[in-house]
Structure formats: C-alpha cells, structure tokens
Write a structure and sequence with these properties.
The protein has 468 residues and is of the alpha/beta class. A hairpin with a 3-residue loop joins strand 11 and strand 12. The protein is globular. 47% of the residues are buried.
C-alpha cells in the first residue's frame, strides 16, 4: 500500500518573491531558502488578492476572493448583523474558513498541526499553537496565548504590547526598537515552537504541519542580531516621491499621505533594512525546520512547501504597503521541495503564469487527494510542471487575475490591465516590456484603450471560469 507523503508548509506573510536572493534584487543572502529551492522547484506566483485578509484566505483555500463569501463559517447571528459584508470579513480577526488545505488533508486521514497565526483554519487542526494576530491589540490574560505567557515570564509583555500599538498607529515609519533575542520575537518564537513540535508528530500516519509566521511585512523591527545585517547606505537607491494624482488605478495607499510625503532616502532605507532583517530571520527559521524534519525517521517521505500570501511595496512609486498591483506587492515565492531521496527534473524557475490559488491544487495533487465536487478551485495543479523537465508549461492560462476593493487586474505575458468593478471600466494599462517599472499608464492613449478592449474577452472568460 502506497504511503501518503508528509507535508511541511512554511508560510511567512508579506514575503516578496525578490526577497529570496536568487533574484539578486537586494544585498542580502538567503542561503537556506536558496538551498531549499535547489532541492526542489522555485516559481514566482501572483497573489490573487494583494489586500489582507483575502490574500491569506485565497492561498489557504485555492479560491478567488469573489468565491470566498460562500466558504466562511458565519452563524445566523453573524448574517443578521451584516457580518457577511466583505468590509466586516476583511477586518474580522476571528474569522474561520469552512474549507482549507488543512481540512482536505484532515478529512483524508492526515494528522494536521499548526503553529503561529493559524486562527482562520484552527478548526481544521488536530494539534495547534495558535497565536493572536498582530492587529489584536488588547491586554492579554496570562492563560490565553503561549507567546504572551512567554513574554510575561521574560518581563517583556508590556513593552511588546506598546510596540504593537505603535505599529498599529505608525506602521513601519516610527517603530519602537527593543533589545530582543530571536525567541522573544513573534516569528522567532513560532520557529522555536515548530522546531519542538516536529519530533512529536506521528510516525504511524501521514502528517501536515503548517507554520504561519507574521512575516517580514509585520512592520516590526527585527530581533537585535538581525538588525543591521545590511548597510542602509546600500538601500537608498531608487527613491521617488509618490504622485498621488496617478496612484488610484494600481494602489490604495495603506498609510496616511503625510507619512508617505515625509519619506526620504534615509528613512526608506531604514524600512527596507528592517524588512530584510526579518527576511533573514525567516531564512534561518527555514533551516531550523528543515533540519528538524531531516532528523525524523520519515524524512524520506516529507515534502516541504514555502510560499507567501502577498508581497509588499518597499519604496516603489514612493509607496510602502500592500494594497497594490505593482510587482513587489503581488509577486510571491513558491518553493516545492520533494523528500531528500527524490529529485525533481530541474531546479530552474519555470516560466509561465502561476498564482497563489494554484498552491492548494498543487499540494493536493502531490498527496493524491481530491476536493469535493461541490467546491470549484480557482487554480490549477502545478505538479505536472515541476515534475517534468519542461520549463515552459504547455497549457498556459489566458492570464492571471488579482483583485482588491473596486479594482480588478488581469496580467498577460506583456501587459497589466486594471478594470474598475463591477462595471469593468478600464482604468490602467501598463506595458511590462517597455515600462518595466510600471510608471506609464497608457489608458489615455489609443494604444492603451485598444489593448484594454482587446483583453476584455480574456477577462470575461476567466471570470466565468471562476464563477462556474
């Protein structure tokens, strides 16, 4: 009888694809992520929804944001109070997904475990250490959160709560800097807990461990040993002042304008350095987790998946934040690494259109599990691509769709076209070859309007496929 593979699923939130040093975009080496990529296959995916929380939900369900309202666990009281409204769902830290990758695995007989920010699929976990999301700002009770209890013992709880309040008010611009050991940082703590849990996972049945980090876009300074890894002098390049008159089609600024207007090269460099410091923390956590799985007797049957729900802007167009269609915000990494005794045909980055909604069907294909017929996943399995030596997929989709608020993006091999929903009025066209930095909106030209009109049939076909 064939043994189903185990799964280590590592998910740092807000992790840009180019933060991995194989893209040579930033002066920071991520040796452990590169090693994992060399062992498997590395792809660049497009977030189906670059705004929280739908970016996370679409990744964990394989559903497009416009499908999600039917797959959230809402009571009759929730519905009567208007809690099915997307604006409520977006800000509901207690929301639960009725279906997720964890639920499909659990129903197939897997032991499911989760460490970190796993509340949206907590009911699908047999074993968990669930931490509060950073947006939950309240004085905790000593019994309700393992991380809070740890901080209380260390005498750091009041300082961390104050740091979170500053983060909520000022974002990454004026953070409280604390002298922290890595284990006292939320992501360092998550890594330590996951490392300790891995040896306890069962050996008599398949298991799936989900490790969800707050991620580098948490707007928290990194722990002390990760601070200053990169000289800020090398992070000042490319600074521009935001042009608010041309922002709307691609971006909804996540912070008040005065903060963005006060950005200058040195301040932006500090934000970038903090981000990269947390990237390095995640890189080391990958080493911890992979080493722990390698020490298990079932290591020859364990797949590792590393991905993220979305990226973030680090100064592109003078912006910082995640509600945007610009590349830094919607391009996320996907690494799929097989067990140590298995080799994939290639370790190069396959070319093509890949989306975060493809992650769930890809993992389910690897473990040979089917979803119920009543659920229509928006994505496709990438396993046929990564398990062959053909770097160019034969069935390339018509384009990729991303969405937030009242904006809908379709990205083709050459263009990004943004439409306003629900009337599908075109409001932006960018040529990704002639305008790599996405600064020149062609919508007011005959060429741009022609491209938008010609792409409309593709868009409607994709939307019908999602709604099918």
């Amino acid at each position: 009888m064939k043994t189903q593979p185990n799964l280590l699923f590592i998910l740092p939130r807000g992790f840009r694809s180019d933060a991995i040093s194989d893209e040579h975009s930033w002066p920071l080496a991520t040796a452990h992520l590169e090693a994992l990529a060399r062992r498997g296959s590395r792809m660049v995916t497009t977030s189906a929804s670059p705004a929280d929380p739908f970016a996370f939900d679409t990744l964990m369900t394989g559903l497009h944001p416009r499908q999600l309202s039917n797959h959230l666990q809402l009571t009759d009281q929730d519905l009567s109070e208007g809690k099915a409204d997307p604006q409520f769902i977006r800000h509901d830290s207690q929301r639960q997904l009725s279906h997720s990758l964890a639920s499909y695995l659990q129903e197939a007989g897997y032991h499911t475990a989760g460490i970190g920010l796993v509340r949206p699929f907590l009911t699908h976990l047999d074993q968990s250490i669930c931490l509060e999301d950073l947006d939950v700002i309240r004085q905790p009770r000593a019994t309700e959160d393992l991380y809070y209890r740890h901080l209380r013992k260390r005498g750091l709880l009041a300082a961390i709560m104050k740091q979170r309040q500053t983060r909520q008010r000022f974002g990454p611009f004026n953070p409280d800097r604390l002298l922290l050991d890595p284990v006292d940082d939320i992501d360092g703590f998550i890594a330590r807990q996951a490392e300790a849990v891995i040896p306890t996972l069962p050996t008599n049945k398949p298991w799936a461990l989900f490790v969800v980090f707050a991620g580098p876009d948490s707007h928290l300074p990194p722990p002390t040993i990760y601070d200053g890894l990169v000289s800020t002098r090398h992070l000042r390049d490319g600074f521009t002042i935001p042009n608010f008159r041309t922002l709307h089609p691609m971006t909804q600024p996540a912070f008040i304008r005065t903060e963005l207007q006060r950005l200058e090269p040195a301040r932006l460099a500090r934000i970038r350095a903090d981000y990269l410091g947390r990237v390095s923390l995640i890189d080391y956590a990958v080493r911890q987790l992979v080493t722990a799985t390698d020490d298990r007797v079932d290591r020859v049957n364990t797949w590792t998946v590393f991905t993220s729900d979305r990226g973030t802007l680090l100064g592109e167009q003078g912006l910082v934040g995640h509600q945007s269609f610009h590349a830094g915000c919607i391009q996320t990494p996907l690494i799929v690494a097989p067990p140590r005794n298995t080799e994939l045909p290639h370790d190069a980055i396959p070319e093509g259109f890949f989306s975060t909604v493809d992650v769930v069907p890809t993992v389910l294909d690897i473990v040979e599990i089917s979803v119920p017929e009543t659920i229509h996943l928006a994505g496709r399995s990438l396993y046929p691509i990564i398990s062959t030596d053909d770097l160019v997929p034969k069935n390339t989709p018509l384009g990729l769709i991303s969405e937030f608020e009242d904006r809908l993006l379709i990205e083709t091999q050459r263009y990004k076209i943004v439409y306003r929903t629900p009337d599908l009025e075109p409001i932006a066209v960018f040529d990704l070859i002639d305008d790599f930095d996405e600064k020149k909106n062609l919508i007011d030209t005959n060429l741009g309007m022609g491209i938008a009109n010609a792409t409309m049939p593709r868009l409607t076909t994709l939307l019908k496929k999602i709604s099918a």
